[in-house]
């Protein structure tokens, strides 16, 4: 069992008692989770004051990762295989410098981080992963999932947005049932259309795509007819909707921080993509994801 870190440090101005016994109530200035201040009133001199919103801890002592093939490092080291040692979240590769390495240090990352992501997983499988992560009693849980909900054999098979939301809400409830104080970093789903646009420049990558990777977006990669364009636009629209769900559900949890769309907005180039499938992040891409996550986790407040 990893050691627990000190209790969350309050940010912002020090709490100040501004009224005394001459008045029947006292005003307490406390810090919100984003580093701002808010005034709260007590019922009277003898009443307990409201608990302040817990501050975000930018240096957690343990990390558990949940998600899909990206977090498993799929196709980053060899063709059609996981490579968790280069995972952006919990990997040990010195070139990637995962979030765990950046936050915990190289030696501690190996013993105080756990990767429960599963290649091919969709949002419906996330509650089970969250249950496993909660057993580790991590101080931070990273979430990157949703690409497989849009990457189906056809647009008609994509996960409905309502189902996506229900599964993510269930996942957060599952985590909170066993790990109520764990912080959660939620990555946006990458821009799959951007990945298609970049990857289609590589002939070898397109041959791998024909094996069945993300047919809804990558099928008939060079077809620029109206039906193919509409299909890809429908996938992009669904990914945008999924990211809206991730943002909204995370915003309702005081210990959850969404990346503000940073991963979706990142303009991956061929340099960051797998040399085998030109779709999944390679080592370089995993390092970029680790950088994005580290900036979000250590920022004074949540991304805009």
Q: Could you name the CATH class of the largest domain? A: Alpha Beta
Query: Which runs of at least 5 residues are low in confidence (pLDDT < 50)?
Result: 1-50
CATH topology of the largest domain: Rossmann fold
Number of strands: 7
Overview of this protein structure:
There is one protein chain. The protein has 304 residues and is of the alpha/beta class. The chain folds into two domains: 7-55, no CATH class; 63-298, 3-Layer(aba) Sandwich (Rossmann fold), CATH 3.40.50.1110. 36% of the residues lie in helices and 10% in strands. The protein contains eleven helices and seven strands. It has a five-stranded parallel beta sheet with strand order 4-3-5-6-7, sandwiched between helices. Strands 1-2 form a two-stranded antiparallel sheet. Helix 3 (126-135) packs parallel to helix 5 and helix 5 (161-178) runs parallel beside helix 9 (226-251). The relative contact order is 0.15. Mean pLDDT is 86; it is low at 1-50.
């Amino acid at each position: 069992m990893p050691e627990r870190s000190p209790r969350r440090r309050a940010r912002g101005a020090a709490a100040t008692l501004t009224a005394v016994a001459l008045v029947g109530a006292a005003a307490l200035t406390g810090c919100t989770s984003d580093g701002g201040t808010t005034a709260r009133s007590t019922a009277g001199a003898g009443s307990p004051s409201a608990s302040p919103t817990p501050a975000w801890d930018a240096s957690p002592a343990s990390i558990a990762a949940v998600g899909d093939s990206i977090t498993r490092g799929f196709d980053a080291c060899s063709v059609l295989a996981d490579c968790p040692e280069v995972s952006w979240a919990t990997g040990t590769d010195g070139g990637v410098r995962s979030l765990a390495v950046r936050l915990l240090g190289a030696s501690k990352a190996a013993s105080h981080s756990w990767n429960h992501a599963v290649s091919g997983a969709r949002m419906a499988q996330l509650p089970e992963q969250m249950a496993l992560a909660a057993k580790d009693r991590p101080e931070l849980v990273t979430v990157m999932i949703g690409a497989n909900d849009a990457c189906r054999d056809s647009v008609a098979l994509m996960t409905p947005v309502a189902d996506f939301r229900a599964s993510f809400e269930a996942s957060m409830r599952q985590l909170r049932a066993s790990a109520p104080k764990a912080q959660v970093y939620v990555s946006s789903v990458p821009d799959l259309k951007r990945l298609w646009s970049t990857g289609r420049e590589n002939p070898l990558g397109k041959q791998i795509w024909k094996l069945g990777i993300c047919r809804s977006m990558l099928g008939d990669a060079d077809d620029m007819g109206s039906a193919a364009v509409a299909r890809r636009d429908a996938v992009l629209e669904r990914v945008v909707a999924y990211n809206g769900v991730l943002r909204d559900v995370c915003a309702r949890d005081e210990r959850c921080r969404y990346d503000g769309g940073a991963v979706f907005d990142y303009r991956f180039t061929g340099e960051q993509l797998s040399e085998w499938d030109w779709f999944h992040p390679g080592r370089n891409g995993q390092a970029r994801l680790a950088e994005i996550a580290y900036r979000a986790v250590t920022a004074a407040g949540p991304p805009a």
